[in-house]
Amino acid sequence: MTKISYNKFEKPTYPEDKVVEFQGQQIEVRQWVPTAEKLQAIGSIIELAHDPSINYANPTGLDVFTSIYIIKLYSNIEFTDELIDSGTILYDEINNSGLLELVKSAIPQQELQDFLNKLKKTYKAYYQYRQSALGLIEIISTDYSDIDQQLDNIQTKFENKDNLTYVKDLLEKLG
Fold first, then answer.
1. Which domain holds residue 66?
2. What averages of pLDDT result for each successive group of 10 residues across the chain (175 residues)?
3. Are residues 152 and 125 in the same domain?
4. If both were cysteines, with which of 57, 63, 89, 103 could 49 make a disulfide (CB 3.0 to 4.6 Å apart)?
5. Do 81 and 156 fall within a single domain?
6. Residue pair 118/39 in contact by the 8 Å Cβ criterion
7. Overall domain count for the chain
8. CA geometry: angle at 156 spanning 155 and 162, to 5°?
């Protein structure tokens, strides 16, 4: 079989941005986003939606940050980090004003679905890994450094003879 260099093929052309108007402003909506940018946005969404108190992504948080990143990724609207960190406040504003729906409706359905499918697959794989034995070992080993520090503190306290005498006396009184 004869090999053909990929460089002999024409590179694809991508559709031009679509312009929509919102509150008197011209908003450019991308019709296609490179995979590398999608992956970066997906990582940010999962990180921002992660709730450390339950060690899982809050489903509402996932929806909030997905919506924010759809606008950030597909339009020329810029958000500061502080606005993104406000999460639900920004989400309420873009959702209730109609901006979110306007931008989403200007993105080709197949393109938007591709992004959402990649997000769903990555989210599922990430949390399957975190719940696996290997993921749990990683979490435990991360927590181990804190335990190690606590043990060092206890050891330091027992090196003080007065503290050791106090504990001995306390144990004798307790029986």
1. 10-135
2. 93 94 98 96 92 77 96 97 91 97 98 96 78 56 59 59 61 65
3. no
4. 57
5. no
6. yes
7. 2
8. 105
**In the block, residue with structure tokens 């450094």:** 145
Sign for the pseudo-dihedral over CA of 139, 144, 145, 146: positive
- 3-class DSSP assignment, residue 55: coil
Which pTM does this prediction carry? Answer: 0.71
Beta strand ranges found along 10-168 (DSSP E): 18-22, 25-29, 50-51, 56-57
Q: Is residue 147 located within the same domain as residue 130? A: no
Contact 63, 15 (CB under 8 A): no
> From start to end of the chain, where are the E strands?
18-22, 25-29, 50-51, 56-57
Is 47 in contact with 32 (CB distance < 8 Å)? no
